[in-house]
Design a protein that fits this description.
- With 407 residues, the protein is α+β, with helices and mostly antiparallel strands.
- It is 35% helix and 28% strand.
- It has 13 helices and 19 strands.
- The strands form three sheets. Strands 1, 2, 8, 9, 10, 11, 17 and 18 form an eight-stranded mixed β-sheet that branches. An eight-stranded mixed β-sheet has the order 6-5-13-14-15-12-16-19. Strands 3-7-4 form a three-stranded antiparallel β-sheet.
- Helix 1 packs parallel to helix 6, helix 1 packs parallel to helix 9 and helix 9 runs antiparallel to helix 11.
- The longest helix has 24 residues.
């Protein structure tokens, strides 16, 4: 059971070595690492437990990230239930080209939807390891971050009372629109941003996947993608104008475009089904520097966003969390602050590597639809090179699997 808190009028001060703001993959992983080392912490989340366990998110996890979870005792259900992907397929100029990255590298992807991972992490943290967590809190604020006595305050959802929690460190894991990133002094922050100028219509279909792997359709009408999620549900993407209204995409139009953009010689039509989700994602990236301000350490989307083009976001969040959790444990149990001192630099090496790959892959996905014959020609040259040059194939596989970026 989740631990109870002192009543608001009890006069008992709340103090934890670490307060984690945000109960996504990054925050819950940090919390679990701390609890495994018997370090007390408090996780604050503005949404309900039911919401975070059902919030639809992607689920492609790189093998190094799964091994990091496994090392920390956080991958039991994942290893039992995840699908393993060892190949992807590009479709362009009416042909299909299978890319067997598992054969090339000996590595693979795990497909395990983020809501399932979050469910596992919150159960392990709160119900197994006895971690403190508050759901549904309101008006979270951080204070005195540039001192050695920071604190976090919030409004209790049950009583409306204001609580102040004192701590040694704050882990900011509350996403792109969270309070922790917004608390950074503007004059000390640089946000590097890139806007791709395109949108993706994200779809969930009640239909089995039409291939046993991820499909990338690079078409003059725009990119299309198929990402298997389960034997009964498939994720699809369609390139569309940024800010487009999902209502502009009725059932018939969606399936007509998917059939056209993912069609290829010798393959049957896609298996169609009811669309249970339609939303437009505008493709953009950002990186916040520094990721550290005083006693505040940002992780995950609070520090950086990589567009879903390369399916890297959750992997970056886990990488941050491994580094931050381990560094906090070292500092709080042995006094070793070297991990915290090098935290941002170690994170940003992988962040920028993944951002660069996302840009490169965006040109591969979208170049043929740019309306520019020169870009279309160079894009097709890149695609053909993947299937004619062993060196190009090896380089792509390394970046696609995340094995090129080392801890």
């Amino acid at each position: 059971m989740t631990h109870a808190f002192p009543p608001a009028d009890s006069g008992v001060p709340q103090r934890f070595p670490v307060v984690v703001v945000g109960a996504g993959p990054a925050g819950l992983t940090v919390g679990n690492i701390l609890r495994a080392a018997s370090v007390d912490c408090l996780v604050l989340e503005t949404e309900t437990r039911e919401f975070i366990e059902q919030r639809p998110r992607a689920g492609v996890i790189e093998e190094w990230a799964v091994r990091g979870l496994e090392k920390r005792g956080l991958a039991r259900n994942l290893l039992d239930s995840a699908e393993l992907h060892t190949a992807c397929e590009f479709r362009f100029v009416g042909e299909r080209y299978r890319f067997p990255y598992g054969e090339l590298t000996g590595s693979h992807h795990f497909v395990y939807p983020q809501p399932l991972l979050v469910t596992d992490l919150v159960r392990e943290y709160a119900d197994v390891r006895g971690g403190r967590i508050r759901f549904g809190v309101r008006d979270v604020r951080v204070h005195d971050l540039d001192t050695d006595r920071p604190s976090v305050s919030y409004t209790c959802p049950e009583t409306g009372e204001r609580h102040v929690v004192h701590c040694d460190f704050v882990a900011g894991c509350d996403g792109a629109r969270g309070v922790t990133r917004a608390s950074l002094p503007p004059e000390r922050v640089r946000i590097a941003r890139h806007d791709y100028g395109i949108g993706w219509l994200a779809l969930l279909a009640e239909a089995p996947p039409s291939a046993d792997c991820v499909l990338f359709g690079c078409h003059a009408r725009g990119f299309a993608g198929q990402m298997p999620r389960s034997p009964q549900v498939t994720r699809y993407y369609l390139q569309c104008p940024p800010g487009d209204d999902p209502e502009n995409w009725p059932h018939e139009r969606v399936w007509s475009e998917l059939q056209e953009r993912l069609g290829a010689a010798g393959v049957p039509p896609l298996t169609e089904g009811r669309l249970i989700e339609k939303r437009v994602l505008d493709m953009h990236d950002y990186v916040v520097e520094p990721m550290v301000h005083g006693r505040l350490y940002l992780a995950g989307d609070a520090a950086h966003l990589v567009a879903p083009i390369a399916a890297k976001g959750m992997n970056l969040a886990l990488h941050d969390a491994f580094l931050l959790g381990d560094a906090l444990v070292a500092r709080l149990t042995t006094g070793d602050g070297s991990g915290l001192d090098g935290y941002a630099q170690a994170c940003l090496r992988r962040v920028w590597d993944y951002q660069e790959f996302s840009q490169w892959l965006s040109e591969v996905y979208h170049g043929t639809a740019a309306g520019d014959p020169f870009r279309a020609g160079t894009t097709l040259a890149r695609l053909r090179r993947l299937f004619t040059s062993p060196a190009a194939a090896a380089a792509f596989a390394e970046q696609y699997l995340g094995t090129a970026a080392r801890h």
